[in-house]
Amino acid sequence: MIGFGAEEDHFVAELTYNYGVGEYRLGNDFLGLTLQSSQAVSNAKRLGWPLSEVGEDLYLAEAPGGYHFYLVDKEQPPNDPVQKVCLAVSDLERSTHYWSSLLGMQVMERNEEKKTVLLGFGDSQCKLELNDIGGKVDHGTAFGRIAFSCPRKQLTDIEALMKKENQKILTPLVSLDTPGKATVEVVILADLDDHEICFVGDEAFRQLSIIDPNGNALLDKAMAEDKSNEWFAKHNKQKASA
Predict the structure, then answer these.
(1) Which domain holds residue 203?
(2) Is residue 36 part of a domain?
(3) Domain count, the chain
(4) Residue 7: CB atoms within 10 Å
(5) Quick one: pLDDT at residue 181?
(6) Cα–Cα separations (whole angstroms), residue 186 to 41, 165, 240
């Protein structure tokens, strides 16, 4: 889990490395993550990372694997620099209804020209942008899910509402054990375009999401110890494509 601060008040991304898989096929479902940080822009330039200027003070960077990051070349705000996550939808009005009327997000901005709607649960939190692509949403093989934490007692209400509205429930309310740590409860949904949405009980989640002061060192150690490329070369094999 990687981000600019604690998960209780910052957006974080979950990076998953699956051993033996060397490549994933991107779909058109995830349209990018936007963050405001002049430092990120200067870091990219210093490291020679390709940047494309796509607007005033706005750059596009492509991460390994093809994921898009939009970098706003302005001073990093005191709260979360991650401004929004953009998902593709096939029907903007129906999707807006789903995310606002059913899931309770507030519509904060509409752009008829770009066919986008910006939603959020709070002004200080990372926003969700829906972008109507005018066609089918393809999740490829590299898809992930959006996750929110909420008071545990709300999980049953969310599940009940989805059942009442005949919406997709991928995983009914379930308890997940983590040895030696808190047991969290989750319910996983899918919207009209099959974007996966996970709601997690906040009380237990806060116990699981405490920042590990050794996190960076542990990640570096794990990457250094990964010898999968050498193993595949030694055995004259290729990593699979998902």
Answers:
(1) 144-222
(2) no
(3) 1
(4) 17
(5) 84
(6) 36, 19, 31
Residue type, 190: A
Query: Helix or strand or coil: residue 106?
Result: strand
Q: How many CA atoms lie within 13 A of 92 on its CB side?
A: 19
Per-residue pLDDT of 201-228, as tens digits, reads 999 999 888 899 999 999 999 989 988 8
Q: In whole angstroms, what is the distance from residue 30 CA to residue 46 CA?
A: 27
Whether residue 158 lies inside any domain: the answer is yes
Residue 180, pLDDT score: 83
Alpha-carbon distance of 91 to 233, in angstroms, equals 46
Residues 58, 69, 90, 10, Cα dihedral to 10°: -100
User: How many angstroms separate the CA atoms of 45 and 47, rounded?
Assistant: 5
Could you state, in chain order, the average pLDDT of each consecutive group of 10 residues for the chain (242 residues)? 91 90 93 97 96 96 93 95 98 98 97 97 94 97 94 96 98 92 94 98 91 92 89 89 86
C-alpha span between 152 and 200 (Å, rounded) = 7
Residue 113 inside a domain? The answer is no
Predicted confidence at residue 103, as pLDDT, reads: 97
Residue 140 pLDDT: 95
State the Cα–Cα distance between residues 63 and 106, nearest whole angstrom.
30
CATH number, domain with residue 171:
3.10.180.10
Assigned domain for 115 exists:
no
Amino acid type, 25: R
